[in-house]
Specification:
Blueprint lengths: L1 E2 L10 H10 L6 E5 L2 H12 L4 H6 E5 L14 H7 L33 E7 L10 H11 E12 L4 H5 L5 E3 L2 E3 L5 E3 L3 H11 L2 E14 L4 E13 L3
Parallel strand pairs: 1-2, 1-4, 2-3, 4-5
Antiparallel strand pairs: 5-10, 6-7, 7-8, 9-10
Helix pairs in contact: 5-7
Length: about 240
């Protein structure tokens, strides 16, 4: 499942979803979650314009704010949801118990209570847009919908990335947290903060490192120093 979180800047990571659908086996489904219907509509247009016909039927977008509400019942029913909780202190109580609608999915058979959770979850430049006080609950929610042994792939802005250094002092709204001109937020992670978030939710750390990239725009004669945090985390078996 690919999760994106943009409210005013309405963009789903189509550049990630599209290659994933085209390169994966045809029995793999991609559930794309975003809290913006406009972002989902744009992503759907791109996928439907693809020459890979099977990609259209394997792309399942749905609108949801995973930082404030538990995922819908068709993704993980109440019974399976409770079974998946390995850690009683995983901060799920911080998420509002919204109505977990069982509609909106057409691939379920009548005998199935839900699709049974996810094998993989991706948070690609997503968590940094979630308000800091809701991050722990959002990560715990991702943990709960993963199958045992499932993996979460994480990449986001790292401490001292060029975008952090460009923010003005009056744009700072918290510890390493800034507010963009469009109203969206940006948080810049250290390895320790990222580790604490995921380990605290019950994940096992598989990989966690800084990814430093020097990008040169030759036409504008500009050098950009990017710092990202890359991580891979697993739900215990």
């Amino acid at each position: 499942m690919c999760i994106s979180y943009k409210i005013n800047n309405k963009t789903l990571k189509t550049k990630f979803v599209y290659p994933l659908l085209c390169s994966c086996k045809e029995n793999i489904l991609v559930f794309a979650c975003d809290c913006s219907t406009e972002a989902l509509d744009r992503a759907t247009e791109v996928i439907h314009a693809s020459t890979v016909v099977s990609a259209r039927s394997r792309f399942r977008p749905f609108c949801w704010d995973f930082s404030t509400c538990r995922f819908p019942k068709w993704l993980m029913c109440d019974s399976c949801y409770e079974t998946s909780l390995h850690k009683p202190n995983a901060s799920l109580s911080e998420i509002d118990n919204c109505e977990r609608d069982s509609t909106g999915i057409t691939s379920l058979k009548k005998s199935e209570c839900c699709i049974g959770g996810m094998d993989f979850v991706t948070l690609i430049f997503t968590l940094s847009a979630v308000p800091l006080h809701r991050m722990s609950a959002a990560v715990a929610e991702c943990f709960s919908v993963l199958k045992p042994g499932g993996l979460l792939f994480f990449r986001d802005y790292g401490l001292y990335d060029m975008t952090m250094l460009r923010f003005e002092a009056d744009q700072k709204v918290g510890f390493r947290e800034y507010k963009r001109s469009d109203g969206t937020r940006s948080y810049f992670f250290s390895l320790d903060i990222a580790r604490d978030l995921f380990i605290g939710a019950g994940f096992i750390e598989v990989e966690l490192e800084y990814c430093c990239v020097k990008s040169v725009n030759r036409r504008k004669q500009k050098t950009m120093h990017r710092v990202w945090v890359h991580g891979k985390f697993q739900k215990p078996m």
